[in-house]
Specification:
- This protein has strands at 8-12, 17-22, 36-45, 58-59, 66-68, 73-78, 91-102, 106-117.
- By secondary structure, it is mainly beta.
- The chain has a single domain (8-117), classed as S-adenosyl-L-methionine-dependent methyltransferases (Single Sheet), CATH 2.20.130.20.
- The strands form 2 sheets. A 5-stranded mixed β-sheet has the order 1-8-7-3-4, with no helix packed on it.
- A hairpin with a 3-residue loop joins β7 and β8 (106-117).
């Protein structure tokens, strides 16, 4: 995910969404899942900074909806609870902040923006 601008992807409120990317080191080479020391997710509302669904530095290295294979292909499944609308505008921006460490002392991070669309008829 090094240096990639994913832009915001649209997600309907209270639906499951899938995000996929390739993890890369500082040279652009793939980081296989076995080479990762840690991979975490913090999910929060961009405006209020409120953490969503208790996703505050949650381990997603082959756990909690995240998987990384031997070629560095990363898939994150956001649950319906991850994509809850907190109120206010018809669309709100949530930030998925991924942070990872590899080779003991190397680190990377990437923000991914989710535009969560308020569905007035969804309880």
């Amino acid at each position: 995910m090094r240096g990639v601008d994913f832009g915001a992807f649209r997600v309907n409120e209270r639906t499951t969404a899938v995000f996929a990317a390739d993890l890369q080191d500082e040279t652009g080479a793939a980081i296989p899942g076995d080479d990762l020391d840690a991979l975490t997710l913090t999910l929060y509302d961009e405006t209020t900074r409120q953490v969503i669904n208790s996703r505050d530095a949650v381990d997603v290295l082959n756990a909690n909806g995240g998987t990384v294979d031997g070629q560095g292909h990363f898939v994150m499944v956001f649950s319906a609870d991850d994509n809850q609308h907190l109120g206010g505008d018809t669309t709100e921006t949530h930030v998925a902040l991924f942070r990872w460490t590899y080779d003991t002392d190397k680190q990377g991070s990437q923000r991914v923006l989710l535009s969560v669309i308020n569905e007035p008829k969804v309880p």
